[in-house]
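Lab meeting prep.
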Amino acid sequence: MQEASRIEPSSQLSGVRYEIRGHLARRAHELERQGYEILSLNIGNPGLFGFRTPETMRLAMIENLGSSEAYCNQKGIFPAREAVVMQQQARGVMDVTAEHVFMGNGVSELIDLTLRGLLNPGDEVLIPSPDYPLWTAASVLNGGRAVYYPCRESNEFMPDPDEVGRLITDRTRAIVVINPNNPTGAVYSRACLEGLARLAEKHGLVMCCDEIYDQMIYPGSEFVPMATLCRETLCATFSGLSKVYRACGYRVGWVAFSGALDRAHDYLAAMDLLAALRLCSNVPGQWAVQTALGGFQSIKQLCEPGGRLFESRQAIVDAVAASPFLELVAPKGSMYAFVGVNRAFFPSFDDEAFAMELLEQQHVLVAPGSSFNTDYRDHFRITNLPDDATLAEIFRRIHTVLEAMARAGKKLETV
């Protein structure tokens, strides 16, 4: 009998990474099965840290379960789409209708659909570095090429529009903006966003705005919706229930198209086709959207002094300031901190090797900075979802590992 050949994965996956749930997370699961308690900071998953979805949203979903058993329209239920329209209009984006809003199984699905409907083989997408790696993965899996524009620490992790402009070619189709930013916590200035909007308009590029953290803003910062600045080209605004409304498991996201809608009929028809091919997104969770967007915005209290997210963020800022080994551009938004190490102590620092040692020795799981498609390896991302006491313990363990490395002059090999 002939020996069966190995089943090989698709070659399209060769450029796809998602180390947030990669080999480090798998090793953490192994340690948990052995009985160890792991402090996991690799994923922004509010429900795992005691954050509850607002009760009104839960009730809205429960009360409409009887209306959730059939497929809905491929774009989503009307009350959910109309709630997104009302939010956009309240922000000054007046050209959006319910026909321009697509509901999805989280923003993740809609990123894939949006790029699938846009890209031809070899087309380029401008993506920030560091990025949220799903944008790179979706570009590659849909035949495109990710071209990274730098968001430098020296500029508070904001991009320079002039530098972005020099990367545009005749194959560029879209610019991705993640604001407030994951992984860095940056909140882009109005001037920065205006510069990016003018680039997209000048070159006829689709502006893809990942604004899932739109209301997770700390005092002293201002969130400016890109759709209010980008009118002469197509703007796709992505958001959802997962983060601001602490409802990750509902898997409800949306994309709202605005701007040059008159030039996008064929593309929006392609989006409608792709939405129809997957029939529809999760119906029960969609019933929570109208209540979420129209109700009391409890996220604001969480991000103000005395609020849990504010205090956890401050605990991270204070812990880094007290450490000779660490550096940080204080996050202005989102639920993450992108922590750097002092190269004077660790000239050959490798973020993946450090993350594995921290996991093995101290049972703390972080995401290496290079997993966000950077060309440097001296950062790691953590979430500020744990309470401030837990974060103090986490940084004590981080300090223990770094102090031992500094004392020994240890060079960690790349894992």
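Slide two material, second protein:
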Amino acid sequence: MNDIERLLAIEAIKQLKARYFRCLDTKDWDGYAATYAEDAVLDTTSTQGGAVVHGSAAIAAHVRRHVDHVVTVHHGHTPEIEVLSETTARGIWAMEDVLCWPAGGPLHTLVGYGHYHEEYVKLSGRWLIAHCRLTRLRVDRS
């Protein structure tokens, strides 16, 4: 893989993560599921009430159950993306999320700070998330 191919792969992964955030926040669950490989793993065990979920459809259903009724805003920053081969890569994204529950919800607002630790795979010409682990540095609740 030459430098141009590596940069194109990094840009495609950045676009993938942007689509992930947009689909999550707009509640486009089909689009959200499509950012994951079919056999992907989501690991949120380092967060309160976290779980390990297998498969893109199950991941989307799991996340939907938790935030479909919540206004969310997710931001990813300062990606560190390492292309390992023509079809594999890994990355770490600093993140901030804001979740606002409707009146009567368990919280009013949650603001979280942390990192996404991810592995990517290129299948049929598209980069997808193969493994995502969320870690949090801080959570503010009100």
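Talking points for slide two:
The first strand starts at residue 36 and ends at 43.
The radius of gyration is 15 Å.
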